[in-house]
Amino acid sequence: MTEVVRVDELSRIFRTGAVEVQAVRSVSFSIEEGAMVAIMGPSGSGKTTMMNMLGCLDRPTSGRYFLGGEDVAKKTDDALARIRNRRIGFVFQSYNLLTALNALENVELPLVYRGMASGERHRVAAQTLAEVGLSELMSFRPYELSGGQQQRVGIARALAGTPDLLLADEPTGNLDSVSGEEILNLFLDLHQRGRTLIIVTHDEQVALHCQRIIRLKDGRVLSDQPVDPARRRIKADLGTRALTS
Ligand SMILES: Nc1ncnc2c1ncn2[C@@H]1O[C@H](COP(=O)(O)OP(=O)(O)OP(=O)(O)O)[C@@H](O)[C@H]1O
Ligand SMILES: [Mg+2]
After folding, report:
1. Ligand 1 test: best mutation among 47, 49, 201, most atoms within 8 Å of CB?
2. Quick one: average pLDDT of 186-200?
3. Alpha-carbon distance 53 to 226, whole Å?
């Protein structure tokens, strides 16, 4: 199996004036292609800090991060931005969609940065929105969509560039249970199609759908264990096809 992520003694210290916070302390793990992994832990345990480093939005204070075998810790800002744009899809709790753009334009945006021609961009974005069940709503602005629909736009935006790694920080945190379940089904569908997913969640039910749970506490790995297949809550027939917009 190909290793997509390997972190080695990764640490992140925040210094604000005289105060020093060790948000992530010497964390090591690796994640293989096609894995679906949950990161859990109490508030302040370093989950978002960890995800921001995995997503190349932030740099570790020390330690190494290999993405697809490549050491990314020492890259320049420009190189890091390129890696982020081409290899990583990030899904946020609060969707982070641009309100001035409709669903299609939001999904197109990362492809614009990539320099893709507009015709191709349109085609890819429309196809990705169809995959998340939003074909009918491509011209809607974020405020015309439900939370679950907005999150599906967020997922389509993350997926449009066919990233090696999909990172989601509390993707169901702002959603009611029905919309949350739709989003979870979408992730399970992506997992079944071979995507590599790392999901931060407070929700044990979400985590139990993953293959493995990494628990953080005070910035350290408290446990890193596979989910017992008997406890995994995989449903027989799931996926975007079952979703209605
Ligand atoms: N930019 C920053 N500057 C200073 N301290 C920070 C910064 N970002 C995070 N921290 C601190 O690092 C620690 C870990 O924060 P982090 O956001 O990673 O936690 P979390 O596990 O995501 O929590 P939550 O479940 O509430 O989202 C906290 O003590 C937090 O205050
Ligand atoms: Mg967080």
Report:
1. 49
2. 95
3. 23
The C-alpha atoms of residue 97 and residue 83 are separated, in whole angstroms, by 21
For a substitution probing ligand 1, which of 47, 93, 172, 202 has the most ligand atoms within 8 Å of its CB? 47
Which ranges of 17-117 would DSSP assign to H, the alpha helix?
Answer: 47-54, 77-87, 103-113
Q: Across the beta sheet with 70-71, what order do the strands follow?
A: 19-32, 3-16, 62-67, 70-71
Q: Name the band, by pLDDT with cuts 50, 70 and 90, for residue 230.
A: confident
Distance 160 CA to ligand 2 centre (A): 24
Q: Report CA(93)–ligand 2 centroid distance (Å).
A: 9
Among protein residues, the one whose CA lies closest to atom 12 of ligand 1: 23
pLDDT (0 to 100) of residue 240: 43
Mean pLDDT computed over 143-161? 96
Show the domain range for 166. 3-242
Q: Measure 38 CA to ligand 1 centroid, in angstroms.
A: 18
For the domain that residue 61 is a member of, what is the CATH number? 3.40.50.300
Confidence bin at 129 (pLDDT 50/70/90): very high
Single pTM value for the model: 0.93
Domains in the chain, number: 1
- How far does the centroid of ligand 1 lie from the alpha carbon of residue 131, in Å? 33
Task: Give whole-number Cα distances, 161 to 6, 12, 40, 110, in Å.
Answer: 22, 28, 27, 7
